[in-house]
Amino acid sequence: EAGVVQSPRYKIIEKKQPVAFWCNPISGHNTLYWYLQNLGQGPELLIRYENEEAVDDSQLPKDRFSAERLKGVDSTLKIQPAELGDSAVYLCASSPSGAGELFFGEGSRLTVL
Amino acid sequence: DQQVKQNSPSLSVQEGRISILNCDYTNSMFDYFLWYKKYPAEGPTFLISISSIKDKNEDGRFTVFLNKSAKHLSLHIVPSQPGDSAVYFCAASEGSGTYKYIFGTGTRLKVLA
Questions:
Q1: Of B4, B100, B102, the CB nearest to A48
Q2: Which of A14, A93, B69, B107 fits A102 for a cystine, CB–CB 3.0-4.6 Å?
Q3: What residue of B is the nearest CA neighbor of A90?
Q4: How far is CA B3 from the centre of its chain?
Q5: Using 50, 70 and 90 to split pLDDT, how confident is the model at A77?
Q6: Is A42 within 8 Å of B106 when comparing Cβ atoms?
Q7: How far apart are CA B83 and CA B70, in angstroms?
């Protein structure tokens, strides 16, 4: 069974540029999460989807961050414009609806110069 | 306000001995807990979980203990192996289907051969 796939693995951009990350969850997993992980910290939830509905986006900085999950499968997280403080690893995770553990992708490491 | 705390940033243990990783939480509504392991440049992988209706859960070399009155959980690894060297995160959520996981800051375990 394929795991959670994220791309790109690494991205380096200048500040004020836009950037987008893509996530393909495990087949059949209805719940999809985007987490932010800063260096030396644990993952912090940005947004959670149940199918195509964002059920928890309270931690998403909506002035510059946006996300979508069309058709309830793949998801895209966008930052526009990026700031220096956005340098971090962006983790996507999925789980079967109503089940416990999360399955994480390898993450997308963003460096903003 | 850090609701899930891992106060030891690092731990070194001799191969074959027991590793004990600790986690404290402040939210008494948390009733489901997980431990994740993370290698460099990889996403976190699920290790073991425990529900608040239990005080112990065991899976091979890994055992998680939960002390609800102290709001404390610990992960025991016996015997420790060099391949266990990684960063370990504990995570907690309020159940009832919310599955909004709050992660600790992680403990880096180094198992010495």
A1: B100
A2: A93
A3: B43
A4: 14
A5: very high
A6: yes
A7: 31
